[in-house]
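[User]
Protein folding is very new to me. Any chance you could explain this protein sequence and its structure tokens? I have pasted everything here:
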Amino acid sequence: MAKTKARPLRQKTVSSAKKSSPQPAQVNGARRRGGGPLAVGAGLHTESENHPWTIAIPDHPARTDSETYIQSRLVMNKLAGTIQDFFGGKPWQDHHGGGLWLQDDKGWFVVRNVAGMEWSSQFCADPAKVDSLRNNASRLYARFPQAAQQLGIPELLQAKIQTADDIAKWTDSICNASIPLPPGFHTGILPQGGGIHHYPAPVAEIALFKFDSFKLWVMDSEAQPAAVTPTSPPGSGDGRVRVIYSTAGTQLRKAHLEALNQNQPLILPEDHPLARQAFRNQRGTPTTPHPLTDGLVPSGQHTESEDHPWTIEIPDHPGRTDSPDYKKARTAMNAMAKTINNFFYGPAPWQDHHGGGLWLWDKPTGWFLVRNLVGIEWSAQFCADPKKVDLLRQNAQRLYAQFPEAVKALDIAALLSTPIKDADGVAKWTDSICNASVPLPAGLHTGILPMGGGIHHYPAPISEIALFKFDSFRLWVLDPQGNPAAVTPTSRPGLGDSRVQVVYSTPNSQLHADHLQAEARGEQLTLPGDHPMAKQAYLYQNRPAHVHRVAPVLAPAGAGSR
């Protein structure tokens, strides 16, 4: 995609001397319009922390909802109103998550494509890669022709995606802008909500199927959000917790990364303040926390002292071992993925992501993949409510009713027909081919920048852009403080706009503070074309080179690393 001269901007300087992050107002999830604060500067180096941030006011009309999007939102709300609320009740926001609505004799239900496309990501999207999403949906709807007709999408499914206009139509269509999410789970920032736009999906999605009495989100000793799961099944008498999310720049994050580098979980003893917060509603007087936010507040009315010792605890029982179901699922997943030419997630070797993958088969093409409403990570099973997990089984069962060949080949008839009622049922589903079944390259799965933007560490709506962007556009860049950030173009290729929009910023950075301020105003954080982060984003268009599509090497622009 071509990088061209940006339109002139009107700017106003804003002081950035303070390093403390403001308390953001709850984001209402409206589609952001206008400009936001931006950093202005030239050169190919990392700027000092007192680099001025400014607000850019574009000289072209603000973003408006397309007719396609307006129609998609209306249809999504109508369909969602007819089904059981897995994601939560109204009001819903329309998440561009690749939802594919299907219909059987019980009514409507929804699964997900292999990736969703956020509105801002379309401007760096490669039509050939986006067309893979269309082709995947087309194969699915071939078994649900009535649903396709009622949604009015046969023409959309048949028309090859070749241009920016085609991408825009797909992005805002009912085949992409179609997942009904409550505001807190969509765009929420803790403590208001653990939204998937700000937190890793394998962590945030646990809120949808955990026991209501378990607190997923807790606060660390520095009053920063963290997420934990139990280390053992309910009733085991084990009150320890495993840290699965920690905020950048904290002592907990440092200990968490040290544990990961040693290939060990960071486990906290049952008397640790985070463990006490997690089990508070089980040990004390029961409360009714919001299922998506857990009513996130520090334990009691204060924050624990920062000198609480952090340790990597080695459990006194046998470590985690791969179950026979998991080994079987991993073998089947690899065998099926190897049959697909130009596999969307990239070539082997793959890691087995517990992402809710549902493998389907058709003639004459063979195997292809869609995803369930959510996936269940191995460690999440110990706080999972069997009744909620059973909703995932029912969703998969309805899908597979139209793919009997796949059911037979995968030998999952008994799995699909057996209600999930206890921890054993949850465990079997968690490690089955209906959940532990998404083949991801290591960088996209568990990678930590600069080695890769893995979905276990970064929001999926951002990380997944790596799967369909132009290879020449750099999604991941470094901010002026040397922290990872992600950007997308502000306009489609060829419109003379080389600015970029910040779509991810590292927590506790100055960029993150300004990013949150912009979001609280319902605006986007836009950087001019001569800003170093914009120059990094377009680096490979000026100096062509082979770029790994999923895990590019992250280095400051001008460093010569690519």
Summary: The longest strand covers residues 99-104. The chain has a mean pLDDT of 83. The longest helix spans residues 127-141. Residues 324-440 form one domain.
